[in-house]
Amino acid sequence: MSKPPASPAFVQQLNFLGRDASNESAALQAAFSLGLFGQLSAGPGAWPLSLDSLAEHLGANRRGVRAILEPLVGLGFVLFQEGQGYLLAEDTAAFLADASFRARLRAVPDWWHVVAKLPEAVRIGAAVDGRDLLGWFRALFLEPSPAAPNARAEEFFDRYARNFARTQALVTAAELGLLTRLVETATPRDELAARLKVHPEGLGVLLGVLASLGVAREEAGRWSFTEAAARMLDATSLPYFQRALPATMAYWEAFGHLGEAVREQRFRLDLRDPETARRIYQENASRISGIFGSHLRLSRKAAELVGQMRSLSGARVLDVGTGSGVWGAAFGLAAPTTHVTYLDSVHVLDAVRPHLTKLKLEARSRLWEGDCLSVDYGEAEYDVILLPQIIPALPPDALPGFFAKLARALKPGGLLLISGYLLTDRRDGPLDALYFALRRYVSNEGDVLSLPEFQALLSPVGLTAARAFDMPIQQVVVAHRGDVAWPEVAAVPVA
């Protein structure tokens, strides 16, 4: 008998801790250290402060301030009044007025870079760089905490101080091989420590933190996964979960200097630098290839959507910034006469070839090495153009010209399909999209947009019809010149 699936809430929470929790902590810590909260008014008669004014008062970059503010609005710690500006929520103002609570907050950011050395601390069971990191984790997770002013303050502190530590606990458990051991069998702590070649006391702290996350449990002196974790992280799915953790760590130092990036526009992980971008892609190449199969099944849903609007038989498809090639491959499989061109840099295309070979798509594929912002796409060359999660990687000021070139390259009745995160019209959610946008800022890349922002870019280049549709992976925006009928599928409602 197959075991029941893991709780969606548990899966969502664990994926959040592995991917976005440290982004959230970084936003809250940067807002506090920059003095952002102190610039905003709260309560009756409070006057909203515009984004431009707030950036000026802080002596900071406007887009960087916005990248921090938007998650705070999504969390409800800051309020946004459309057309006017930002206010501090009254309950936020109340607990930030407490001097002892502020002192607790000030002590946390100094641990950011030390926390990344948790694997070393667990191995040796002692201080690292003169800091008692294991003691800090004990105090944070395993011992009674000082009372917060109220429940809302405790939530703020939890997100501010514990979330990035939770992420690091999962990273450490994966790096040391603990998660793999917990899949196999229930084991006493000291035996686990011997197998993993770590200090028993250090491992005890890590196991305690995992227990607080609902991941591990001790029963009759033996440690194993909880029932919820065992349902989610079996031998098949655990490697998939662990692949995302190194990508999170690639941004760790940059997020530790988020305030610096906002105030000085100094980026510790600058993905506009070609060598840095190449290194990060190569580090992520195995993860991207590992998820190709599952994403192909989901990407084919987008091809089905387009197929309801126009025939893909004989269609010429261009996949811009192809990455793993999964979107182009999905369209290549949609009809036996579809031809797909995959555009990206050479080191990316090297990873695409094996997928096309496996799927027997080489004869109907073209690999095009080039920079998506500088190549000539021609005129009326393609029936469908795909932009798979590429917009957040491009400089915002380059988008008008980029979309103009793409519109020119579409044939009559052609479709432009943009996949990726889509913000609400107010840019106050979804939170995972806002955290993704913050990651794009801290690496000096592009932005995540709302549907009205896409429409404002697409309409001037003749793509006057644009709608958003829900897909199994994020959302897609489909645009055309108004010469194609929309499918009988509900579009995403205006937020």
What does this structure look like?
By secondary structure, this protein is an alpha/beta fold. The protein has helices spanning 8-19, 21-34, 36-39, 51-58, 62-75, 90-96, 99-106, 112-115, 118-124, 133-142, 151-175, 178-184, 189-196, 200-212, 227-232, 238-250, 252-256, 258-264, 274-290, 292-307, 326-332, 346-358, 399-409, 431-442, 451-458, and strands spanning 78-81, 85-88, 187-188, 216-219, 222-225, 316-320, 339-344, 365-369, 382-388, 410-420, 465-470, 475-480. The strands form three sheets. A seven-stranded mixed beta sheet has the order 8-7-6-9-10-12-11, with helices on both faces. It is globular and about 65 Å long. The two termini are 43 Å apart. The relative contact order is 0.09.
